[in-house]
């Protein structure tokens, strides 16, 4: 489990990005739920923590793809592939993330960079 | 409502078809598309697709296995709407009858008079346009872009990265002054000079010379700009000729209420062809943005399925983006009503700017260059501001 941040430091409607590889973001919804998903949009290199959080959905700040925080599913294009979701545990006022063991769906530019090709 | 015809199979048409099914419409759904292709994403056509970084499969808008239980009629154009029969007539002679109709026929690229017939002269709107232009850019040489708007600027940026010698000719004194205002138009279009792309402003185009392939662009002031390839990026006109005489009110596109309704019951319009009433501006505006084509169909479909009784939410301010020379340009709101523009963060010299447009002290629009996080903060604020 990776410690993310203190619950008290993440107000409702806000997101916190963990700078791990690939980065993960923790969202605190207006209804008080907490979710963790991969931070990078599966369409192009953009941080979903900078996105528009509405209900259980986050909209990518660049091209407005929407992802369901509960399942990672794409709710609106141009993204086609889901983001990974990660288990969240809150213990003694601290938010922890249990990273998924599935392969991430990174956008083509990032995937190419990781593979050593041109970005 | 048992049958709905969606006329137009690009983002707005696809979004309407999705919204119909999401909202529980289980009747017959027919989607009519003029192009032979399944719905595809247009923004990359001037950027990653034109650069050869992504292929056609990457443009597909439908998800794997997505099935809207629709009947798709591709490669056929709507030529008439018959209000008595509630029928859409197609160019191939077929007729589609429907209780509800969604007009999503988009817009077509404007061309220069006399530009037809010369090889190497392009407009850019469709996948077929992009394929043809990509092939010509691969030849290298000199590209002249007529029009310094967003399409022209993105094509110039892509061609520059491909190694072409690029000149932009813009009739107005400042490119992008319409959407961004003079001051910010100047800052964003300075990206061209940063990269050695020539920008000729305040001069019109008299004509093209060459044959069979274009060889030069002739300017109003007598100058001649040599060209191996020319892109005409002078805007788009709404594709609504087929609605003339139908009873659907037209002005600049289809005149719609703030919920997408047209002047005919059971007919709504969405996307680039639709001029929705904007309660913030107190006027009709035809918005040619990707986000509008994706977001508004849901509202229009709610209107259609409820016969106009659905309550509409407050629409978000329009938002668009442009990627040029690796700089992310983002804009939300309307620049036209602003009486001041201030740079809140960053500096124009670094092409790293967050600028806020205000009217009587209240924010009405925001521009970001490489400032996605700050931009989103302001964009959200615009959505709740009562301007």
From TrEMBL, chain B:
<dbReference type="InterPro" id="IPR023753">
    <property type="entry name" value="FAD/NAD-binding_dom"/>
</dbReference>
<dbReference type="GO" id="GO:0005737">
    <property type="term" value="C:cytoplasm"/>
</dbReference>
<dbReference type="Pfam" id="PF14759">
    <property type="entry name" value="Reductase_C"/>
</dbReference>
<keyword id="KW-0560">Oxidoreductase</keyword>
<keyword id="KW-0285">Flavoprotein</keyword>
<dbReference type="GO" id="GO:0016651">
    <property type="term" value="F:oxidoreductase activity, acting on NAD(P)H"/>
</dbReference>
<dbReference type="InterPro" id="IPR036188">
    <property type="entry name" value="FAD/NAD-bd_sf"/>
</dbReference>
<dbReference type="InterPro" id="IPR028202">
    <property type="entry name" value="Reductase_C"/>
</dbReference>
<keyword id="KW-0274">FAD</keyword>
<dbReference type="InterPro" id="IPR016156">
    <property type="entry name" value="FAD/NAD-linked_Rdtase_dimer_sf"/>
</dbReference>
<feature type="domain" description="FAD/NAD(P)-binding">
    <location>
        <begin position="3"/>
        <end position="294"/>
    </location>
</feature>
<dbReference type="Pfam" id="PF07992">
    <property type="entry name" value="Pyr_redox_2"/>
</dbReference>
<dbReference type="InterPro" id="IPR050446">
    <property type="entry name" value="FAD-oxidoreductase/Apoptosis"/>
</dbReference>
<feature type="domain" description="Reductase C-terminal">
    <location>
        <begin position="319"/>
        <end position="383"/>
    </location>
</feature>
<protein>
    <submittedName>
        <fullName>FAD-dependent oxidoreductase</fullName>
    </submittedName>
</protein>
């Amino acid at each position: 489990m990776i410690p993310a941040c203190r619950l008290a430091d993440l107000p409702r409607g806000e997101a916190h990005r963990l700078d791990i590889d690939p980065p993960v973001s923790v969202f605190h919804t207006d209804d008080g739920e907490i979710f963790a998903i991969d931070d990078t949009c599966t369409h192009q290199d953009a941080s979903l923590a900078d996105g528009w959080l509405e209900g259980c959905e986050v909209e990518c700040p660049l091209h407005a793809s929407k992802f369901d925080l509960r399942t990672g599913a794409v709710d609106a294009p141009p993204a086609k592939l889901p983001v990974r979701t990660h288990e969240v545990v809150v213990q003694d006022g601290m938010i922890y993330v249990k990273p998924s063991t599935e392969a991430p769906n990174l956008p083509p530019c990032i995937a190419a960079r990781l593979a050593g090709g041109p970005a | 409502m048992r049958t709905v015809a969606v006329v137009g199979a690009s983002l707005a048409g696809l979004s309407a078809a999705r919204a119909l099914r999401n909202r529980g419409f289980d009747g017959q759904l027919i989607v009519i598309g003029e192009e032979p292709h399944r719905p595809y994403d247009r923004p990359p056509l001037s950027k990653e697709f034109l650069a050869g970084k992504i292929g056609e499969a990457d443009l597909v808008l439908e998800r794997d296995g997505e099935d809207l239980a629709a009947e798709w009629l591709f490669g056929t154009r709507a030529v008439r709407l018959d209000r008595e029969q509630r029928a859409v007539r197609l160019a191939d002679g077929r007729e589609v009858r429907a209780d509800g109709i969604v007009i999503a026929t988009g817009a077509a690229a404007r061309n220069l008079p006399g530009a037809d017939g010369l090889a190497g002269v392009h407009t850019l709107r469709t996948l077929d346009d992009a394929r043809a232009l990509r092939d010509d850019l691969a030849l290298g040489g000199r590209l002249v872009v007529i029009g310094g708007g967003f399409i022209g600027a993105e094509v110039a940026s892509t061609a520059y990265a491909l190694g072409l010698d690029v000149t932009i000719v813009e009739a107005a004194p400042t490119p992008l002054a319409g959407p961004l205002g003079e001051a910010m138009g100047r800052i964003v279009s300075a990206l061209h000079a940063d990269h050695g792309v020539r920008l000729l402003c305040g001069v019109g185009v008299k004509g093209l010379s060459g044959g069979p392939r274009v060889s030069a662009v002739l300017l109003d002031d007598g100058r001649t700009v040599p060209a191996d390839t020319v892109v005409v990026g002078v805007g788009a006109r709404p594709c609504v000729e087929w609605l003339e005489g139908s009873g659907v009110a037209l002005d600049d596109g289809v005149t719609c209420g703030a919920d997408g309704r047209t002047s005919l019951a059971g007919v709504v319009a969405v996307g680039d062809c639709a001029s929705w009433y904007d309660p913030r501006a107190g006027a009709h505006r035809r918005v040619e943005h990707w986000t509008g084509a994706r977001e508004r169909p849901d509202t229009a479909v709610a209107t259609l399925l409820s016969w106009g009784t659905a309550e509409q939410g407050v629409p978000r301010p329009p938002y668009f983006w442009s990627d040029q020379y690796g700089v992310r340009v983002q804009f939300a709101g309307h620049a036209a009503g602003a009486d001041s523009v201030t740079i809140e963060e960053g500096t124009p010299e670094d092409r790293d700017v967050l600028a806020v447009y205000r009217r009587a002290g209240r924010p009405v629009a925001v521009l970001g260059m490489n400032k996605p996080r700050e931009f989103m903060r302001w964009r959200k604020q615009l959505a709740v501001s009562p301007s």
